[in-house]
Amino acid sequence: MEALYKLGKATAAQIQAAIPDPPTYTAIRTHLTILENKGHIRHKSDGTRYVYEPSVARNKMAQRAVKSVLATFFDNSVEGVVAALLNEADTRLSREELDRLAALIRKAREEGR
User: For the whole prediction, is pTM greater than 0.90?
Assistant: First the structure.
């Protein structure tokens, strides 16, 4: 999906070329079929080639992915996700990022979330 979001529209071969250390062409096509069956992408025919494009905006797809990770690994605990991220040794937040996070928490409290 990342390669397709970056390219906007692309054939399987173009997607394969955009991925570092890519899987086989057949694996790319299989994955594209799975993503299409799930409604994440769509294709149009261009002669004998299929040109794929995302059918879900990147931010919406990100929300779906986060919800899935939240449910699968953190029993729907937002606190658990944030704690896991903050406890990573390579997670270094700037003062500005911490301030923005604090503002989001304040806003959530005010809105009763």
Answer: no
- Quick: pLDDT tens for 12-31: 999 999 999 999 999 999 99
Both structure tokens of 78: 């937002």
d(CA 2, CA 101): 26
Written as one letter, the residue type at 85 is L
The string of DSSP codes covering 49-101 is EEEEEESS-HHHHHHHHHHHHHHHHHTT-HHHHHHHHHTSTT----HHHHHHH
Beta strands in 1-113 (DSSP E): 41-46, 49-54
Chain-centre distance of CA 75, in angstroms? 20
**pLDDT beyond 80 at 113:** no
| CATH number 3.40.50.10860 is the correct assignment for the domain at 2-54 | no
With beta carbons less than 8 A apart as the criterion, state whether 20 and 37 touch.
no
